[in-house]
Amino acid sequence: SLLNSIGDVCNFVCKLHNFNRTGVASRQHRHESFEQAPIYVAVMTYLGFGIVTLFGYFRDFLRAVGLEKCHLARERDEQKDFVPLYQDFENFYTRNLYMRVRDNWNRPICSLPGPVFDLMERVSDDYNWTFRLTGRTLHNVINVGSYNYLGFAENNADFLKTVADKTRQYGVGVCSTRQEIGNLGIHEELEQLVAKFLGVESSMTFGMGFATNSMNIPAIVGKGCLILSDELNHTSLILGARLSGATIRVFKHNNMHSLEKMLSEAVCSGQPRTHRPWKKILIMVEGIYSMEGSVVRLPEIIALKKKYKAYLYLDEAHSIGAVGASGRGVTELFDVNPADVDVMMGTFTKSFGAAGGYIAGKKKLVDYLRSHSHSAVYASAMSPPVTEQIIRAMKCIMGKDGSTEGIRRVRQLAENTRYFRARLKEMGFIIYGNDDSPVVPILLYMPGKVVAFAREMLERRIGVVVVGFPATPITEARARFCLSAAHTRAMLDQVLHHLNEVGDALCLKFSRKKYSSWSDLSDETDFELGS
Amino acid sequence: MNFKNFTEYLAWLYYQYLLITGIYVLEPWEKSIFNSILFSAIAMVIYTSYVFVPIHLCLTLQLSVMMQNYL
């Protein structure tokens, strides 16, 4: 009877929690969770890494003694007394851990990366030191790893008609930089379209997304400026910040207290030794962090930026086109005026099925970048078919091509995201990130399980991306699922069914929380879609 | 998960052991080395406890009886 009453109380609390999550809070119900696994999981992860590291030392000893052939580069005999080249931890890790399991990465694909794709079968006879292709193709493997959020990676001849026409008109290579003679009419059209899409004054596009960050941040900030960058920023942002020569301080991920403390300390104390005021303070954040699936707290950052008179650089590589009611990114998700963000950056690789990046903002900023950015002055301009692909994808999302295909895709992606996340939580996996983000990392923790998971899923014709130590913290290896508007409900159900089986076979369901089932959630009013 | 027989269940348990200790990624001869080291360590522990634990228990009991008498 006591247990029954405890059960009743728990049920009541669960229902209350559920109600608050979906009913009352309306648009502010965004729920981000970073659940911690039980402590034995961390112990076992360290144990696994420790044992494999010991065997790594053993194999290195065998190679040094000469009992085993060394397949990797090593110094010549005459150079054995010089400073060692291959002794650092990164080389040790590559030789002894990565090489053993590298059949799970760099898999050759022989079709377009749509919702399903074809893989070439690849086997290794000497434990992954060399590979050979057997000649067989694995057809119709479900693709949950490509950044194909709105499904624009397609080869439908009707949709690509304008791209083919522009290729005939302009050719494929531009053979010059934007500044010299590579400024085509189609580039100007794209830039105006991007500016209208985002709701800003002006924008500029570049041929490569990584180079957009790393080559433009040095043009905006320099010595004597302060960059406050989030803990989990992408390498391109970190590289750009380091190249600029500004002082970099890192604040804890999405933690507004940490950011405010750093801002107030920077404004009060100024530059390190001279105590002169900083020339500029730039806060660098991303819209969606691709390894965690978490979304930036934009309204709070904008309030802080206005209070302390800092500038904001928002990198929307994963969030443009993928979040927001009409695909405009995090500014639309949080209902924020785009003019409040000083520098909006994004890439066309993820949601638009093309390549390249853009920087958008006030006209003065963009005009300055046209002549001062390394990427604008020295890098080759964007290729015409790629430019036209972005133009047609953007027109589709905005509805300018006269159909509702774009808005249907944005809604389908939101629907897929909610469904997939809710079902995964219900099954008992630990998922990181915001409920709205189409990037879903499932935590796997142990190195053996990471490898077994990737191989098992490939056996079942599902291609997943698993990420391990250098890209994530050592105890938090994960499998990252990128959902797409092109995935049908049947495909998602198939993936979930196999995930359930593999999760049971490998004991991956570490979550200790109880979630209500998907059918309960879908009974609540759908206030997000169609409102 | 449904196991058709006990052998399959044991095979699944062995698979879990391979995954948890990280042995799964090693080559077969390395797996054999690790398994033999672990097995011999466990065998030594079992043998030592079989030989010494009863004697230790007896001595502890005698000691506690002596302490009782003394007090």
UniProtKB/TrEMBL annotation, chain A:
Q: Does the keyword S-adenosyl-L-methionine apply?
A: no
In this chain the Aminotransferase class I/classII large domain maps to 140-499
- Its domain of life reads Eukaryota
Subcellular localization is given as:
Endoplasmic reticulum membrane
Pathway the protein acts in: Sphingolipid metabolism; Lipid metabolism; sphingolipid metabolism
In alphabetical order, the GO MF annotations are: pyridoxal phosphate binding; serine C-palmitoyltransferase activity
Topological relation to the membrane, as annotated: Single-pass membrane protein
Among SUPFAM superfamilies, the record links this protein to:
PLP-dependent transferases (SSF53383)
| CC annotations in GO | endoplasmic reticulum membrane; serine palmitoyltransferase complex
What protein does this entry describe? serine C-palmitoyltransferase
Provide the species name. Answer: Dicentrarchus labrax (European seabass)
TrEMBL record, chain B:
Q: Summarize subunit and interaction data from the UniProt record for this chain.
A: Component of the serine palmitoyltransferase (SPT) complex, which is composed of SPTLC1, SPTLC2 or SPTLC3 and SPTSSA or SPTSSB. The heterodimer consisting of SPTLC1 and SPTLC2/SPTLC3 forms the catalytic core of the enzyme, while SPTSSA or SPTSSB subunits determine substrate specificity. SPT also interacts with ORMDL proteins, especially ORMDL3, which negatively regulate SPT activity in the presence of ceramides.
This protein's species is Dicentrarchus labrax (European seabass)
Q: Give the protein name, as stated in the record.
A: Serine palmitoyltransferase small subunit B
Query: What function does the entry list?
Result: Component of the serine palmitoyltransferase multisubunit enzyme (SPT) that catalyzes the initial and rate-limiting step in sphingolipid biosynthesis by condensing L-serine and activated acyl-CoA (most commonly palmitoyl-CoA) to form long-chain bases. The SPT complex is composed of SPTLC1, SPTLC2 or SPTLC3 and SPTSSA or SPTSSB. Within this complex, the heterodimer consisting of SPTLC1 and SPTLC2/SPTLC3 forms the catalytic core. Within the SPT complex, SPTSSB stimulates the catalytic activity and plays a role in substrate specificity.
InterPro entries, sorted: Ser_palmitoyltrfase_ssu-like
Q: Does the keyword Phosphoprotein apply?
A: no
Which pathway does the record list?
Answer: Sphingolipid metabolism; Lipid metabolism; sphingolipid metabolism
Transmembrane intervals: 9-26, 38-61
The lineage is: Eukaryota, Metazoa, Chordata, Craniata, Vertebrata
Which branch of life, at top level?
Eukaryota
Compartments reported by the entry:
Endoplasmic reticulum membrane
Name the family the entry cites. Answer: Belongs to the SPTSS family. SPTSSB subfamily.
Single GO MF descriptor: serine C-palmitoyltransferase activity
What topology in the membrane does the UniProt record assign? Multi-pass membrane protein
GO cellular component, alphabetical, reads: endoplasmic reticulum membrane; serine palmitoyltransferase complex
Please provide the record's keywords in A-Z order: Endoplasmic reticulum, Lipid metabolism, Membrane, Sphingolipid metabolism, Transmembrane, Transmembrane helix
Q: Name one GO biological process term.
A: endoplasmic reticulum organization
Pfam annotation, one family: SPT_ssu-like
